[in-house]
Amino acid sequence: MTPALQLGLIALALYLAAWGTNKLGISSIVGFMGIGVLLGPGGILPVFSGSDVIHLLAELGLLLLLFFMGLEFSIPRFLEGGRATLWAGVIDLANLVVGVALGGLLGFGWWGAAFLGAALYISSSGVIAKLVTERNLVAYPETERTLGVLVFEDLAMVVVLGGLGLATVGGDALQFLGVGLFLAAYVVLHRFGRPGLERLLSREGEALVLLLLALVLLVSLGAKSLGFPEAVAAFLLGMIVSESRFRRKVETSLASWHAVAAAVFFFDVGLHVDLQSAWRVLPLALLLLVVTTLAQLVTGFVAGRVSGLSARGSVGHALMLIPRGEFSLVIVGLAATAPMIVPDVREALYATVSWYVILSVVLGSIVFARYDAWSEQMGRWLRSPEARRRARERERELDAMRLD
After folding, report:
1. What is the pTM of this model?
2. CATH number of the domain within which 147 lies
3. According to the model, what pLDDT value does residue 214 have?
4. Which of 60, 104, 209, 385 has its CA 20 to 30 A from that of 345?
């Protein structure tokens, strides 16, 4: 199969996956991964296998995913939520502890448990934003709190992803010297390079697109050559660009590249999943989904109440944070290159997290479709006795007013 023919068939397969998931009302991530699993080397119809074309686009997809996540990251935006958002984010960190503990109990080893815990912890900003918009929930009070917690999770993942990323490249003195050089260069760029970056980003049309692709690839791969994880470098570059007045133009210019390359990245994740092995870990993925969803409901409700939301709003905040997605797959992608994780554990991580993401996105889509009814009903159950009494009195007053 020629590279051009392979690219055409991949594009057709991904189009059909996107079309099908759109009809079903679930995230396209599920379709992209699913088509990779079904048509990959270990699938039902092994049409595709790893190739230079897929590898190149998947690597670009990973870097653009992290770059766009960096564009959405904003410390000022996080600080706008004040103490309420901080408390909600700190309470949400309990889910990271739960994930690591589950990994240890299930025999993934310490490093495997660390990667698994990180993958189970972080909610999907992309999937949640899409579902919130589709269900017209933007104006709900709990949406602001949820967005604040997503930014907090991004902040936490800068630390977690950085640590896990460094673990994948080893730790001799020369590599850590390279890491220090990259971080020093990043600090200098952030402090003094903004005027020059603004001038570069003022370009228009294809000149801007080509410049941005060059920046993302060269900065990320340059960081990799110094021993710094390229995915984290792309995220940090996105953070710098997010502070530019051209941020929206950058997003628009790279939107098509981001959509296509990210689709291939999720497709490539599916290609690495052996269906026979995946079926064996499906019960484990379901168990993890049940336990982490219950933990998310508890921590989300507590965080909502502590940060001033009503019982219904607190339930809604917990429900909104259920879907996992792109960041979880990025983390398991890093695990695939971690030398300290044995191959059997690596394969189990890949298959388990892939199933987990698919199941959580499907569950999240179902939850958001019934969001108003479920958050209202669960909120009633969880109200304090005093709140329930006041609600009954209010209902009686309304009934009396209707009779009058």
Report:
1. 0.70
2. 1.20.1530.20
3. 93
4. 60
